[in-house]
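Review form for a predicted model. The reviewer records the input and the model, then writes brief findings.
Reviewer: anonymous (R2)
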Amino acid sequence: MRLARSLILAAILLALASPAWADLTAFLGTGTTPSDRVARGFAVGAGLLVIGFEFEYSDIKEDPVQGAPSLRTGMGNVLFQTPFSIHGLQPYFTSGGGLFREQLGDVTETSFGANTGGGVKMSIFGPLRARFDYRVFKLRGDALFSTVHRVYIGGNLRF
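Model under review:
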């Protein structure tokens, strides 16, 4: 009897489990600190229901005239999002950390950084979505700019 109850409970839990998802984002945007520069990159993520994990790589170009360094980041993030779209929109909040490399001319700094942000994934059709994202990066070490803001729009494929 105990085995039967355990099997029934396991079957119910499996039936109620949300399917896993994964997605891939390619993005283009702007780093706004200290001046606007092109930002580009990609993110790969996976998750269950409301919590997910992603790896993101971003490259913000240098502008020597404005004294704005290039910034490359590789961050691992945790995402909290609605489990379903609301009128085609799926809002999310994200936070994480990783490594960065800032460079302006001959001055280079490589260290640890953290980021916090959020955005929305907007359904286009089928598995294709647009992703709008805002992040604030906190850079440690001797970064020329310890706080950097980035905004982007990307194409997102859910599978």
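Findings: The radius of gyration is 19 Å.
Further findings: Residues 2-16 form the longest helix (15 residues).
Recommendation: see findings above.
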